[in-house]
């Protein structure tokens, strides 16, 4: 064992105490600071991730508001172009709402566009909307619906890009991952398919009959609605399984959405019952579909609020961990520095007392005793030192006694010698 320690012993024997303590302190300090820095950097990355996700969610929610109103404009336009002229005033009112929501999204894009990589997309969206406003009421119904759907497809694509850029789609937690998937993919695509069904169905209902194209298109949309509804339900179930509080927050909205979707599917079944004629009015189709879509958007908004709440919780947790880590690191460093300083000065004080006692003895004061206020190995040095001093004192006493005896004997010898000389 000792042979293993020889290099360390050699090094320590070559260093003065300040350097010894400094070396040991550095060996303790460097890994502590390194590990603490790594941990704090990891926490900071988590904080930045959540903040980035929050920015992406804010942008996506602004896009969602615009999508809902453009979907409604599409449905109204389709009904109007197929003969429901009473929709014209509602179309004009809806355009004002869309313009306002588009301006809000433009403000959001100016604030976050560079961060989320959306710069340049808004100009295309605004251009598409202006073209729709200028031409849609004078176009063929299918062409007007297509123009709306292309704009909405671009906006849904924009939401996906924002989700990727803000890493919502890569969220490491199951609850927020599935809620993010619902916001970015499942529910928004569900509402879009319902919106297209509203446009095609209300247009066909306004004519009172199907075309071959509208019947096939509605059949496909009905199938898509069922598919996205199932995917949405499965994703929400997974999020609730991962976090029970999600179910408590979303239960009412989920029930309302399921009821609205069921009514929408029932309506589509009626509309698709006959491949030629439609007995349901365009207003009934439009209002029922709008109610179902509104239910899905209510669920969408509830999920967005819950997702924001979970992001805030994660952010608070990360900040708390960072602050706790900093406090612990600073506290440990302060304690280590304090104890090392106390250890150093205690040793140096003991060495100072040993030096003073040694010099006192060297000056001839054999009454000197070394008193150290310690319980460590230096106390044994003090005991041995005092024992040595007592031994020296005994030796000196014996030497002094012997010297006195020699002096007496010499004096007596001198007297005898003097008396002998006088007798002679």
Helix content: over 70%
Percent in strands: under 5%
Straight-line distance between termini: 81 Å
Task: Please identify the structural class as seen in this structure.
Answer: mainly alpha
Give an account of the 3D structure.
By secondary structure, the protein is mainly alpha-helical. 87% of the residues lie in helices and 0% in strands. It has 10 helices and no strands. α2 runs antiparallel to α5 (141-165) and α2 (17-81) packs antiparallel against α9 (282-362). The radius of gyration is 46 Å and the shape is rod-shaped.
Characterize this entry briefly.
The chain has helices at residues 2-13, 17-81, 88-116, 121-135, 141-165, 174-207, 212-242, 244-271, 282-362, 377-423.
Helix-strand layout with pairing:
Blueprint: H1 2-13, H2 17-81, H3 88-116, H4 121-135, H5 141-165, H6 174-207, H7 212-242, H8 244-271, H9 282-362, H10 377-423
Relevant terms:
424 residues, mainly alpha
